[in-house]
């Protein structure tokens, strides 16, 4: 009888074989569910990034829409593709251009049904049991001060000359840092994931290229 490990290994092997012919280097695969549980990971990838992969998926799964991807580690060819409401496929290559990994987007849904079926139902936090008050206990009502919602608006601090050597991704995002577009607006305009937008903005905030202002909604 085929084990779960063997089942996911076959899927990972198939992906690796197909895209190994496309990429300039061998791809290493991880299959992770929404809770951050790794159902399969190639050893080379596990040795270097397993903890990061688990934490990233747990923290960011719900921020990605199905069909979106994230490249969270600058200079490292590690990409996360949300293939369904249950799972992420992570692809890593040790060399080559990061952009080559995006070729996976064209076929990312081919394995989603097989993976979802094997993962089965996921336990959401709302279904977990919680300890309620003991018999006879009363709970004092607490007053919660509701904060007014606000938007963060990025503003570019430098005048662009057109000679800057930005990637297409960075250039697309920075052009909307005009003091009018919120982070969500930039996501909608560029079609990049909210994680990608935030990562670029964070990077260029550290470089002192942009600042943020808050606007109450």
Please give the structural blueprint.
Layout: H1 4-20, E1 28-33, E2 38-41, H2 43-60, E3 69-70, E4 77-82, E5 87-93, H3 112-119, E6 150-156, H4 168-174, H5 183-190, H6 194-206, E7 210-216
Antiparallel strand pairs: 1-2, 1-5, 3-4, 4-5, 6-7
Describe, in plain words, how this protein is organized in 3D.
The protein has 217 residues and is α+β, with helices and mostly antiparallel strands. The chain folds into 2 domains: 4-122, Dynein light chain 2a, cytoplasmic (Beta-Lactamase); 150-216, Orthogonal Bundle (Arc Repressor Mutant, subunit A), CATH 1.10.10.10. 33% of the residues lie in helices and 18% in strands. It is globular and about 60 Å long. The chain starts with a helix and ends with a strand.
Main beta sheet, described?
A: 5 strands, antiparallel
Structural class: alpha+beta
Strands, total number? 7
Overall form: globular
Count of individual domains: 2
The unreliable regions are: 124-133
User: What's the order of the H and E elements?
Assistant: HEEHEEEHEHHHE
The termini sit apart by 57 Å
Q: Which strand order do you get reading across the main beta sheet?
A: 2-1-5-4-3
Task: Examine the secondary-structure arrangement and name the CATH architecture of the largest domain.
Answer: 2-Layer Sandwich
Number of helices: 6
Helix content: 25-40%
Task: Please write the CATH class name of the largest domain.
Answer: Alpha Beta
């Amino acid at each position: 009888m085929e084990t779960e490990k063997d089942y996911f290994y076959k899927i990972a092997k198939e992906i690796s074989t197909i895209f190994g012919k496309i990429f300039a280097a061998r791809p290493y695969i991880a299959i992770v569910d929404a809770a951050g549980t790794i159902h399969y990971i190639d050893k080379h990838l596990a040795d270097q990034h397993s903890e990061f992969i688990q934490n990233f998926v747990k923290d960011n799964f719900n921020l990605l829409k199905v069909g979106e991807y994230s490249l969270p580690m600058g200079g490292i060819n590690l990409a996360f593709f949300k293939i369904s409401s249950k799972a992420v496929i992570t692809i890593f290559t040790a060399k080559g251009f990061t952009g080559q990994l995006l070729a996976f987007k064209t076929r990312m849904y081919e394995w989603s049904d097989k993976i979802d079926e094997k993962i089965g139902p996921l336990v959401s936090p709302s279904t977990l049991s919680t300890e309620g008050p003991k018999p006879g206990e009363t709970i004092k009502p607490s007053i919660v001060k509701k904060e007014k919602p606000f938007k963060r608006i990025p503003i570019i601090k430098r005048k662009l000359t057109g000679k800057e050597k930005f990637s297409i991704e960075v250039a697309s995002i920075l052009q909307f840092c005009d003091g009018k577009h919120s982070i969500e607006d930039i996501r909608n305009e560029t079609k990049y994931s909210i994680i990608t937008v935030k990562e670029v903005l964070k990077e260029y905030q550290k470089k002192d290229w942009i600042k943020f202002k808050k606007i109450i909604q």
